[in-house]
Design goal:
CATH architecture: Up-down Bundle
Number of strands: 0
Number of helices: 18
Shape: globular
CATH class: Mainly Alpha
Distance between the termini: 29 Å
Oligomer: single chain
Helix content: over 70%
Largest sheet: none
C-alpha cells in the first residue's frame, strides 16, 4: 500500500507530464516556460507544506494522512481533464502542491524508515522508490495504451481535438485508480501499533535538536542536487521528439522506458545497499550522474546514434534513481532520531525540494530560448553541475558518518 500510494499521488501533476510532455504542451497550449511556472507554483506551495506537514507525521497515523491526500489529489484530476486556461492550471498545481506534500510526504518517508528497522534501511528505501517507479511505469504504460487506442490516426497527424479526447481518458482513469488506492490505504495500510514512534506534540526544542545535526544540513544539499537531476528527466521524452525526431507516441514510449529503469534500479540498490556502505553508494550515484549528464551535454548524441541515446538514457536513469533510492536511507547513520523523523524530513525537504520552484522555469527557459539540441545541452550541463556538487557533499557525509554503518 505504501509503494502504491507513494507514486500514485504524483501521477497527475508529474508522471503524466513527464511521459507525455509533448502532448501536454500541445493540448494545454503551453510553452516550456509556462509549464515550468506551473511546477514552480507547485513548489512554492509545497515548501511550507513540507515544513508544517513534517510534524504531523510524528503525531498522527500515516495511513489516514496518506489516504486523505490521495483523495484530494484525485479530485484535482476532474479539473485537469477540462483543459483549463493557464491561470486555472497554475491554481491547480498550487492545490496539488498542498495535497501531495502537506498530508503525504513526511508520513511516507517515516513509514518507510519504521519499515526498514535497524538493519534494512537501504532495502526499505530502495524497494520503496523502486516500487514507486514500477507503479509510475505501469501508469505510463497504461496511459500509452489508452492514448494509442483512442487515436484513430497516427499521433503525428491526429487532430488536436482527438488528442485532447484521448488524453482526457488517461486523466480520468488515473484519477479513479488514485481514489481506489486511497480506500485500500485507509483500510489495509496498518501496523501492529500505530502509536509507536509518535509524539503527542512537537515543540521548538525538538525542532532545534534536529537543526543542530550536521547530517540534516548535508542532506538538504544532497537532496537538492539529486532532485535537480530527477526534475531534468522530465525532458527525456521531449528530447526524443525534438532531437531524435520521434513522434509523440514513440517519445512517450521513451519516457515510459525511463520509468521502468526506476524500479529496476531501486530494487537492485536496495538489495546491495545494506551489504555495503550506503553512504559510499550514494557518492557513486552522483559520479554516474555526472557521466550521464556529460554524454548529453557534449552533443555527441544525434538522431543517427540510437544505441548511444538509449545507453545515455540508461546511465542518467540509473544514476538519478539510485540517488533517490538512497538519500533518505542515510538518516539512521546520520544519527537522526527515529521519533523525530517526520520533523527532520520536513526541515530537510524545505531546502532539498526547492528545485520544484526553480528547475522547471530554468530548463524551460533554455529549451524555449535555444530551440533544438542546443537548449537541451544547456539543460544537461545544469544536471552535470548540480550532480558534481551533490557528489562532493555525499563524499563529506560518507567521511563523517560512513564508519558508523
Amino acid at each position: 500500500m505504501l509503494i502504491l500510494a507513494g507514486e500514485a499521488v504524483f501521477i497527475l501533476p508529474f508522471v503524466l507530464p513527464r511521459i507525455f510532455r509533448p502532448t501536454v504542451l500541445d493540448v494545454f497550449a503551453l510553452d516550456n516556460v509556462q509549464l515550468g511556472l506551473c511546477f514552480s507554483i507547485y513548489g512554492i506551495l509545497a515548501i511550507p507544506s513540507y515544513l508544517f506537514g513534517g510534524p504531523l507525521a510524528d503525531k498522527y497515523p500515516p495511513r489516514k494522512l496518506i489516504a486523505v491526500a490521495l483523495w484530494l489529489t484525485a479530485l484535482g484530476g476532474l479539473i485537469y481533464a477540462q483543459y483549463p486556461k493557464v491561470f486555472v492550471l497554475r491554481i491547480l498545481y498550487g492545490y496539488w502542491g498542498v495535497t501531495t506534500i502537506f498530508l503525504f510526504w513526511a508520513p511516507m518517508i517515516k513509514a518507510a524508515r519504521v519499515w526498514g528497522g535497524i538493519n534494512a534501511q537501504g532495502k526499505a528505501y530502495g524497494f520503496l522508490d523502486g516500487g514507486r517507479g514500477l507503479t509510475g511505469a505501469l501508469f505510463g504504460l497504461l496511459g500509452v495504451l489508452i492514448f494509442s487506442f483512442f487515436l484513430t490516426e497516427a499521433a503525428d497527424v491526429a487532430s488536436l481535438s482527438e488528442r485532447k479526447r484521448a488524453f482526457s481518458y488517461i486523466i480520468y482513469t488515473s484519477s479513479g485508480i488514485i481514489s481506489i488506492i486511497g480506500v485500500l490505504v485507509w483500510y489495509f495500510m496498518t501496523t501492529e501499533d500505530e502509536a509507536q514512534d509518535r509524539l503527542e506534540r512537537i515543540t521548538w526544542a525538538e525542532i532545534r535538536q534536529v537543526l543542530k545535526l550536521p547530517s540534516v544540513w548535508l542532506l538538504m544539499l544532497i537532496i537538492l542536487s539529486a532532485y535537480v537531476g530527477y526534475k531534468i528527466t522530465d525532458i527525456i521524452s521531449q528530447y526524443a521528439e525534438e532531437v531524435m525526431r520521434y513522434n509523440q507516441v514513440e517519445a512517450a514510449k521513451t519516457g515510459t522506458l525511463l520509468q521502468f529503469l526506476r524500479p529496476t534500479t531501486g530494487i537492485l540498490v536496495g538489495l546491495i545497499a545494506d551489504r555495503y556502505k550506503i553512504t559510499r553508494l550514494l557518492f557513486f550515484g552522483f559520479v554516474l550522474a555526472v557521466v550521464g549528464g556529460l554524454l548529453f551535454a557534449t552533443g555527441i548524441i544525434a538522431p543517427t546514434t540510437t544505441i548511444l541515446f538509449f545507453l545515455s538514457v540508461v546511465v542518467i536513469g540509473v544514476a538519478v534513481y539510485a540517488c533517490r533510492a538512497l538519500y533518505f536511507g542515510v538518516m539512521r547513520v546520520g544519527k537522526i532520531p527515529l521519533v523525530l523523523t517526520g520533523t527532520a524530513v520536513g526541515l530537510i525537504s524545505l531546502i532539498g525540494y526547492t528545485p520544484d520552484i526553480f528547475a522547471g522555469p530554468a530548463y524551460g527557459y533554455f529549451l524555449d530560448s535555444y530551440p533544438g539540441e542546443q537548449g537541451h545541452q544547456y539543460v544537461f550541463w545544469m544536471l552535470t553541475g548540480f550532480s558534481g556538487v551533490g557528489g562532493i557533499t555525499a563524499l563529506i557525509y560518507h567521511r563523517m558518518y560512513g564508519r558508523a554503518e
